Amino acid sequence: MKLPRGIQVLERGWLSSNNIVLHAERAAVVDSGYGAHAEQTVALLEHALEGRPLDHLVNTHCHSDHMGGNAAIQRQFHCRTSIPEGEAPLIDRWDGRELILTGADQRAERFAYDGTFADGDTLRMGEYEWQVIAAPGHDAHAVMFYCSETKVLISGDALWENGFGAVFARLFGRETALAETRATLERIAGLGCEVVIPGHGSPFAGVAAALERAFARLKGYEEDVHRLARHVVKVLFTFAMLEKRSMPLADVPAYLERVAILDEINRVYLRMSPSAFAEWLVADLERAGALQRRDGSVLARGA
Ligand SMILES: [Zn+2]
Questions:
Q1: In the chain, how many H helices and how many E strands?
Q2: d(CA 156, ligand 1 centre) in Å
Q3: Collapsing DSSP states into helix, strand and coil, what is residue 117?
Q4: How many angstroms does the Cα of residue 100 sit away from the middle of ligand 1?
Q5: b/e per residue, 217-256, with b = 16+ CB within 10 A?
Q6: What average pLDDT score do residues 269-280 get?
Q7: pTM of the model
Q8: Dist CA 24 CA 125 (whole Å)
Q9: Under a CB-based contact definition with an 8 Å cutoff, are residues 153 and 195 in contact?
Q10: pLDDT, averaged across the chain
């Protein structure tokens, strides 16, 4: 899809979020990918910038696959970094559980930020003005960036072409998280945007159809929170396998008990024995084509 002048998307696999480069004499980049890909992120950015300076790194939200390359980008480009206001206390505390890092077997290098932004602010990034729009749901403090001049929305994980980022917080005591997700989707519907650049996957123009799919998925979670619990487990395990590439099948039950978030979701919502939990999860992901079993191991797609 052809994007307006000066907007470039470095599309990544699912382990790393897209990096959106907003070109100008002093360029900006939105999101930095997963830590394990930080070197590749820096190389991709260097190539995209062709020697021009990077002025500003911003994050839609502070999950590992969106901020994992922040520290490496700062070292390389000496740019300033801004994050959503609501994420600032979490980054200050760097609590592995709150940031869905250690508790989910994910990693990110700690970084410092220079400033914050919040709903209603306007940021000049690249050639355009971008309105900051709160996007709670998938992450309570996430934001999106909307450019009314080009009608482009940088949605982070609030809206993908097929769905949206898993609403973790609903499973851990944030009762309002699904209602917030609904309000965020409604807010997107009201923008009149023509192109969405999601955090994962290609930019897309069928915004109304994507919203319809997202609302349908959300309705399923609203009707039965166990659907969400199963979805979150699958998302987190698939993500872990993208990084690990393979794991002995016999180790899966113990892994699921060791990773705090997975263990808690099973204890509270799914209530399976460790071996039944592992068997269900692997079989389901194998059916979906996300994993395969071979020679006593479970392998990520393409491994
Ligand atoms: Zn996310």
A1: 10, 14
A2: 7
A3: strand
A4: 10
A5: bbeebeeeeeebbbbbbbbbbbbbbbbeeebebeebbebb
A6: 97
A7: 0.96
A8: 8
A9: yes
A10: 96
